[in-house]
Amino acid sequence: MNLRRVDVVYALLLDEETNRILMVLNKNSTWSLPGGAVEAGETLKEATIREVKEETGYDITVGDIVALNEAFIDGNHVFFITFHGLITQRPKEIPRDENIIKVEWVNVEEADRFMPYHPDGISKLLKNSGAKYVIQK
């Protein structure tokens, strides 16, 4: 069986003042961190920055990788790469995205419940310094 490789990136964004995580409610009624599929020619970091901007309007910088998950979904071998992110600019208005029902800041306990594929929870990822990400030249 030939599976197609798909890379999906996410940003873990914490508002330290409120201790809330930025999440999106997707059209399929599942919650996730903001992010999406990497396009041809993009680095993982470029895709993360673009996807967060498209879905939420937030400008971010991207740090270390805090989680790497993989799954076999609909004939695809999917790698989910989650980066620590830092907000550099907040939007005046959240953009409308056809795949997103709403963008919301949720408390860490809710984020843990919404993200069962991180068995130790989002709260553990926040404490994880992560793995370095380097683009070799």
Structure description:
The chain has three helices and eight strands. The chain has 137 residues and is α+β, with helices and mostly antiparallel strands. The chain has one domain: Alpha-Beta Complex (Nucleoside Triphosphate Pyrophosphohydrolase), CATH 3.90.79. The strands form two sheets. It has a four-stranded mixed β-sheet with strand order 5-1-7-6. Strands 2, 3, 4 and 8 form a four-stranded antiparallel β-sheet that branches.
Any idea what the CATH superfamily is called?
Nucleoside Triphosphate Pyrophosphohydrolase
Mean pLDDT: 92
Q: Count the helices. How many? A: 3
Strand order within the widest beta sheet: 5-1-7-6
CATH architecture: Alpha-Beta Complex
GO molecular function, one term: hydrolase activity
Domain Nudix hydrolase: 4-128
Family: Belongs to the Nudix hydrolase family.
Protein name: DNA mismatch repair protein MutT
